[in-house]
Design brief:
Blueprint: E1 12-14, E2 35-40, E3 44-49, H1 63-68, E4 70-71, E5 81-85, E6 91-97, E7 102-106, E8 113-115, E9 122-125, E10 130-136, E11 142-150, E12 155-159, E13 162-165, E14 181-184, E15 188-192, E16 199-200, H2 205-210, H3 216-225, H4 233-243
Parallel strand pairs: 4-14
Antiparallel strand pairs: 1-8, 2-3, 5-6, 5-9, 6-7, 7-8, 9-10, 10-11, 11-12, 12-15, 13-14, 15-16
């Protein structure tokens, strides 16, 4: 196929495995960084943004640091796995960094790159058939969510997160130093009723129904008639399927 039919701009940022590139502040206004051009992957042209050092913990988190920290892995999938980005057929390898909230991508033997956190950007892991996609979180911050169920009007999402604990200097002689360690938090369910904005799924039935605005009464009747449980993923999927028909 001619190159002109394949040229697109995939916004990704370079993460050096031995450098200090970090997660930037990604909001509705986009990314911050320095643009450079990289020509690779079947002759495609990529526009890349260097990540800033604005990491969530304020430190320069390198691959060496990752290896020195105990506890859970910062990655949901520890090894790079075959994946596809957006709707393109080219196969890359990727993995999801749940600590930095980044999808790390490798193209052939390239350096590690990350998929820019732009609304709608997504990566599909072929082996597990899992998709991670960008939505706006509750603070209007572009974040990756794992898709549990999606349709034309709505999506049920899963937020996976790893945090860094310990590493603080004892405040007194009575305190004990705890070496830094990663901790995987419990996955949280989110819902998007416009496939753009994601909100944490309420466990309270009244708050859950209010999410549907003018469709609240119809959703309420549907839930009652079918004896559905809003804490059950399967039942929530049925509710979203019904919502798509309204």
């Amino acid at each position: 196929m001619k190159n002109k039919n394949w040229i697109f701009f995939l916004l990704i940022g370079i993460i050096s495995l031995t450098g200090s590139a970090q997660e930037g502040n990604f909001t509705r206004s986009g990314t911050t960084g320095v643009g450079i051009d990289l020509t690779s992957w079947s002759g495609l042209t990529f526009r890349n943004n260097l990540a800033t050092e604005n990491s969530r913990d304020g430190n320069k988190v390198t691959e060496e640091f990752y290896e020195s920290v105990t506890g859970d892995s910062p990655y949901v999938n520890n090894v790079f796995a075959p994946a596809k980005v957006n709707k393109y057929k080219d196969v890359v390898t990727a993995r999801y960094d749940a600590y930095k909230d980044l999808v790390v991508v490798k193209i052939n033997d390239s350096k590690a790159l990350y998929l820019e956190k732009r609304l709608g950007n997504k990566v599909y892991f072929m082996a597990t058939r899992e998709t991670y996609q960008i939505f706006y979180g509750e603070k209007e911050r572009a974040e990756f969510f794992k898709i549990v169920k999606t349709g034309k009007k709505s999506s049920l999402l899963l937020k996976q997160e790893v945090v860094l604990r310990g590493g603080e200097k004892p405040r007194s002689t009575y305190d004990t130093y705890v070496a830094p360690f990663f901790k995987r938090l419990k996955d949280k369910l989110y819902i998007s009723l416009d496939n753009k904005n994601a909100v944490k799924l309420p466990t309270n039935k009244k708050k859950f129904l209010k999410l549907f605005n003018d469709k609240e009464s119809k959703i309420k009747s549907f839930v009652k008639k079918n004896k559905l449980n809003i804490k059950n993923q399967g039942d929530i999927g049925k509710i979203l399927s019904y919502y798509a028909t309204l």
